Amino acid sequence: MGRFKLNPIIKKDLRVNSRTMKLAWELFAYLGILGLVFLLMFSTMRAISGYGGSAEMYSAYVIFFPVLTIMQLGMISLSIPVITASSVSGERERGTLDTLLTTTISYKSIAFGKMMSAVIRIMIFILASLPLIAVSFMFGGLSWLVLIEFFLLSFVFAVLAGSIGVYCSSRCKKTITSVLLSFGIYFAIGALSFLPLLILEIIGLSSGSIGNMEFLAKFGFLGQLINPVITFVTFYMERLTSMDIIDDIYDNFLKANLWLFLSVIAQLLLAWFFICKAAKRIDPMNEKNKMKRR
Question: What's this model's pTM, rounded to 2 decimal places?
Answer without folding.
Answer: 0.82
